[in-house]
Design goal:
By secondary structure, this protein is of the alpha/beta class. It is built from eight helices and 15 strands.
Length: 331
């Protein structure tokens, strides 16, 4: 059997590895215009926390996120060189709104911070906050490892830009569409839109916690560096680094956390997150190269690709497995 996976970000790679595990004899081809280190997942800090999702299906998001959290936890304990690590920190707000996050039982040590405690910490401008321990998975470290594993599993890489599904050819039994933002043009899904993110990566070993300020600014730990953000500019396709956004990120974070002012700037980066009203994970029968094929869609994760990837990959692989063994089954 032959399966094509479109997309080489965290969603595409995890789906490809999941179907290889389920069907070790399958010939799996990964098709993408770019591979790591030139994909959006390489830019992400990989902080486990549902972000920029407007999908109302919190039960489904929770399950995907929980499975992914457990996967990263295993990596952190067994394979720390994958870029997986624990981190603790604070989310702070300048209003007194306390949200009941659907993911609060997944993370560790979740608790509300009192206003008095914030004042004692030197954050008197904030009225409410939470503390918790979560995981991070640095994409720029983990993606190359995934790619190596895919090739060791006899997977094939094909680098090219697809204008439509017919461009992949007609020899595959099933197709996994993990094209992310590319679904906008690949299958003309106009509900997919870019959420532009710009970040600054710095060295600041004296910063021991992560911080999120009003959902506008963040300080997130990776193994040897810290990622400062951020922007979430919807419908903005610009991938260039903007000086105005640098000023916004730097000034905002150093205003709230002055200890960052001595940080050494390493680099700046941008990425376009694949926004969508809901994550699309489903099988569809459609014409590809004149033949009816099963296409399993797995895209539209907004800013939560590294939070949901593993759970989504397992579900997508189940659908692909059904497609190759029961191609005429009702979806």
């Amino acid at each position: 059997m032959s399966i094509c996976i479109i997309g080489s970000g965290i969603i595409g790679l995890s789906t490809a590895l999941a179907i290889q595990e389920k069907e070790p004899r399958a010939k799996v081809t990964l098709v993408a215009e770019s591979f790591s280190p030139d994909v959006t997942s390489d830019v992400a800090a990989g902080y486990w926390r549902p972000s920029l999702l407007v999908d109302p299906r919190t039960d489904v998001l929770w399950r995907w996120g929980e499975l992914t959290f457990q996967h990263i936890e295993r990596l952190a304990y067994r394979e720390p060189d994958t870029g997986a690590l624990w981190q603790s920190g604070y989310e702070m707000r300048q209003d007194s709104v306390k949200e009941d996050f659907f993911w609060k039982d997944t993370v560790r040590n979740y608790r509300n911070i009192s206003e008095r405690e914030l004042q004692n910490m030197g954050f008197s401008q904030f009225k409410s906050a939470i503390f918790y321990t979560t995981l991070a998975l640095e994409g720029s470290i983990y993606l190359p490892r995934m790619l190596d594993q895919f090739k060791r599993n006899s997977g094939t890489l094909q680098q090219k830009r697809l204008e439509n599904l017919d461009d992949i050819g007609g020899s595959y039994n099933a197709i996994g569409n993990c094209s992310g933002l590319g679904a906008h043009h690949l299958i003309t899904d106009t509900s997919v839109y870019p959420i532009r993110g710009q970040t600054i990566r710095v060295q600041a070993p004296h910063i021991k916690h992560f911080y999120v300020f009003d959902d506008d600014y963040y300080v997130l730990q990776n193994g040897t560096s810290i990622v400062l953000g951020g922007t979430h500019q919807e419908h903005d396709w610009d991938t260039s680094v903007r000086p105005a956004d640098f000023d916004h990120i730097w000034n905002g974070n150093t205003n709230f956390l002055p200890a960052l002012k001595t940080a050494k700037i390493i680099k700046q980066a941008t990425g376009l997150r694949p926004g969508r009203p809901t994550v699309r994970l489903e099988a569809e029968r459609r014409a590809v190269c004149g033949k009816t094929k099963t296409v399993v869609h797995n895209y539209g994760h907004s800013g939560s690709g590294l939070t949901l990837f593993y759970g989504c990959a397992l579900d997508a692989a189940d659908l692909l497995q059904q497609a190759v063994h029961r191609p005429n089954a009702k979806l």
